[in-house]
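Entry type: protein chain
Record version: 2
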Amino acid sequence: MADFNAQVVEEFRANEGRVGGPFEGAPMVLLHHVGRKSGTERITPLMYLADDDDPAVIYLFASMAGAPTNPAWYHNLLAAGTADVEVGTDEYTATVSEVTGADRDRVYAEQASRYPGFAEYAQKTEGIRTIPVLALRRAG
């Protein structure tokens, strides 16, 4: 997975935030985070959903392709409260908050309607975990 992510990061940076393969045409972000236990800096490429009403907010989905556990980056972001992101050629720091309840369900449903793989991930995790949604708001 590390090699795959490294290739996506390289392609993202070489093409102003656009990548091909399974992510072709999808909105992508490079998420910079630090391991809460290891202290290791990491970069994770992820799909995101832009907030329709607030251009300072993007949503991330801790789907891990429907795995039974949440991804490490989710725990790292909650612990840190902030993250650095790259969107296209723009880099900025964002504050992190978890989206819950009806708001979470609405945002996740929108992502699943645009990208059906997210509906499949939710089916895989049904009865095991609810896929978390995080809001990242541009700081400052």
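Comment: The beta strands are 28-34, 41-50, 57-61, 82-87, 90-99, 133-138.
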